[in-house]
Design a protein that fits this description.
The chain is of the alpha+beta class. The chain has 10 helices and 15 strands. The protein folds into 2 domains: about 240 residues, Aminopeptidase (3-Layer(aba) Sandwich); about 60 residues, Barwin-like endoglucanases (Beta Barrel), CATH 2.40.40.20. The relative contact order is 0.15.
Length: about 350
């Protein structure tokens, strides 16, 4: 039985191991013991409700209960850009015409901005390769949406997630090499590590404020703009199923797409329901089932009837949720309804 639960200080070693395997580009999950220890303390204060809402950072782990193994991690930051700047590029298209020649040019440009400041971020998603099978990835990624649905007042109106950008066969970022290296004069990993430690001021100090015209970049860099890392494509699909979409913002380092949505438009806020727990034989379709306590938040995947008044769960699922019959649980079908619209607009 796998369960997503709020992370605790006892999970430091396991999360550190996961961070070591996450690879480059995971700005919010660095293999830094001191930073992770501080983040777990911040998460504990967040779940306890002892922080101002915008300062909260909710960190979750996926645990395989039989061996007691932590096999995944994910998080929600209540607000970015409050204590430190949060930058992205906005991709814009302008049209230039010359009546004398009859030419019409569509020109794309990148604009440095901090438009996402104050928004809530879905981040730090990583699943151990041993568990990348079945519905494990869906459980880990989508569990966060039940937390958003249960506690919407803790989060901003806008929610977003940065996708890791494209890397070539040599493991290099064409976007970084063309757009960032000339100004930062450091490797991608060095700059990413600085951001992971919250040191973002160098971006404002070193990056030009004028628009960057993409037709002046090489073809590899242009092709990388808004393109998702191969390993991150499945995670992007899961987010799009829940209502997030690309709307023209990209990561300033690797050009990866930023997916965004308004909180009320998320599937979990529209379609999840509160039901009372009951002991019984599992029956129905695969659903995410979550507890409603912020300080003991837990999510499992179980076969239940999402339209029934009672959510009947077997003893293993009840135990994993630490739930008793009669307790309220939030239920959401794992998959969107066929033909249901999951996003408002698309751009790209």
């Amino acid at each position: 039985m796998l369960v997503v639960r709020s992370a605790g200080e006892e999970d430091l070693g396991a999360i550190l191991d996961l961070a070591r395997g996450s690879g480059p580009g995971m700005t919010t999950l660095k293999p830094d013991p001191d930073a992770l220890r501080k983040r777990l303390a911040l998460a504990a204060a967040s779940f306890a409700g002892s922080l101002p809402a915008p300062a909260a950072d909710y960190l979750f782990v996926l645990e395989d209960l039989a061996p007691g193994r932590i096999c995944g991690v994910c998080a929600i930051k209540a607000a970015v850009g409050i204590d430190e700047p949060f930058y992205s590029y906005r991709l814009s298209t302008s049209v230039h015409t010359s009546p004398a020649t009859g030419l019409v040019n569509r020109v794309q440009s990148l604009h440095l901005n901090h438009d996402l400041a104050g928004a809530s971020e879905l981040c730090s998603l990583y699943l151990h390769p041993d568990y990348r099978k079945g519905s494990n990835g869906r459980l880990l990624s989508k569990s966060r949406f039940l937390f958003l649905a249960q506690f919407p007042d803790l989060f901003a109106h806008k929610v977003f997630a940065e996708m890791r950008g494209f890397l070539d066969q040599a493991g290099q970022s064409p976007f970084w090499e063309a757009v960032c290296r000339p100004f930062f004069q450091m490797d991608f990993q060095a700059a990413d590590d600085l951001c992971g430690r919250g040191e973002r001021l160098f971006i404002e100090q070193l990056v030009p404020r004028l628009p960057l015209y993409t037709h002046l970049l090489g073809a590899p860099a242009r092709m990388a703009i808004g393109r998702t890392h191969a390993d991150t494509v499945p995670a992007r699909r899961l987010l799009e199923q829940e209502g997030l979409h690309f709307n023209g913002y990209v990561d300033i380092f690797d050009g990866g797409p930023v997916l965004e949505a308004t909180l009320p438009s998320l599937r979990a806020l529209r379609d999840s329901r509160l039901q009372l727990a009951a002991a019984g034989e599992p029956a129905g379709a695969g659903c995410l089932v979550a507890t409603t306590r912020k300080d003991r938040f837990r999510v499992v995947l179980a076969d239940v009837d999402p339209s029934a008044a009672l959510v009947r769960l077997g003893r293993p699922a009840l135990a994993a949720l630490e739930a008793e019959p009669g307790m309220p649980l939030r239920v959401l079908p794992l998959h969107p309804r066929p033909g249901a619209s999951t996003s408002l607009t698309h751009a790209g």
